[in-house]
Amino acid sequence: MTTSALPVTRASELPVCAPEHAWLIHDLWADQAVGIVGGEPKCGKSFLALDMVVAVAAGVPCLRRFPASRIGPVLLYAAEDALHVVRTRLEGICRAAAVTLADLPIHVITAPSLRLDRAEDCQQLQTTVATLRPILLVLDPFVRLHRIDENASCEVAPLLAYLRELQRRFALAVVLVHHPRKGAGTMRGGQALRGSSELHAWGDSNLYLRRVDERLFLSIEHRAAPSRAGSRSRCAAAATRSPWRSSTPRPSSTRRRPRHRTSSRMCSPTPIGRSPSPSSATPAACARPMCVRPWPPSPRTAASTRPPPATSSPRRSRFPSPVSRRPLRPRGKRKRETASS
């Protein structure tokens, strides 16, 4: 039995992608790219994915800023939202883009569940993609598409390999919405994704959303193109004007700051949830949050903060001065001398 060789092509004969066809959404998502839209809960990941859906299906700029380079059908599976909620959100985005939802080739998978760790569901998804031939596939979110251990790379890699196979076989882009891990507020976007590091390494184009008070910051990361880190604030301003952002201002954060030990150098008090003005900025040596004491104060705290009485005399030391200090004799010898006397 002879084994057939793998197909091979000379490097100089590989296909060349023209610059105008290198993007699905210019500067935001590469053409035929797989990747992740990640971010903390309730920061607009699903809305960003839906805005990409409308942009590709209608040929309008995504977030009113990033123009769509290709126009074609889109396949969407929203596992966490009811079907009427998906339609309401899509209609709102379409109104902001001045297009009609009924005229767009947006197809929504209405199956109650879709699991990429089952061969039957994978075959059904492949048949659907072969029938509709979309240029963009959106799966939201990744945690609802399997029952595997996300921290085990040996279990995550086959699912991502299946999506990569879909991308190569049908020449489409794949967007996977995913959540971050706990306590990842200070980590880099890709490293903050929950689960195995295979997820970050798998993406050709990745988008990371982060909320700071009332502002949304978008970080863009590409494998084969320069990332646009400077567009975060401008993109956040565009997202604020989008139809899925509420016009009612939300109250400022009232989260309690972590306690710190007080030192001899005290900082100027800063109200919780409000940053200090530049004029009242404190030196870097003491620029840290104030220690927030509970109210009413505990007896120990009240005693330590109580001012001394006006008539109190200065405290005397427990020990005499070094000049008048006498050598201490053992207590047993003193008792015996007293008894003998």
What strand line-up does the widest sheet have? 5-4-6-7-3-8-9
Order of helices and strands: EEEHEHEHEHEHEEHHH
Approximately how much beta-strand content do the residues carry? 5-15%
CATH superfamily of one domain: P-loop containing nucleotide triphosphate hydrolases
Spatial gap, N to C terminus: 115 Å
In the CATH scheme, the class of one domain would be Alpha Beta
Helix content: 25-40%
| CATH fold annotation of one domain | Rossmann fold
Described by the principal axes of the CA atoms, the overall outline is: globular
> Low-confidence spans: pLDDT under 50, at least 5 residues?
230-256, 259-296
Tell me the number of strands: 9
Average pLDDT, rounded to a whole number, is: 76
Short key terms for the protein model shown above:
341 residues; alpha/beta; Rossmann fold; seven-stranded mixed sheet; two-stranded antiparallel ribbon; 8 helices; 9 strands; 13% strand; globular
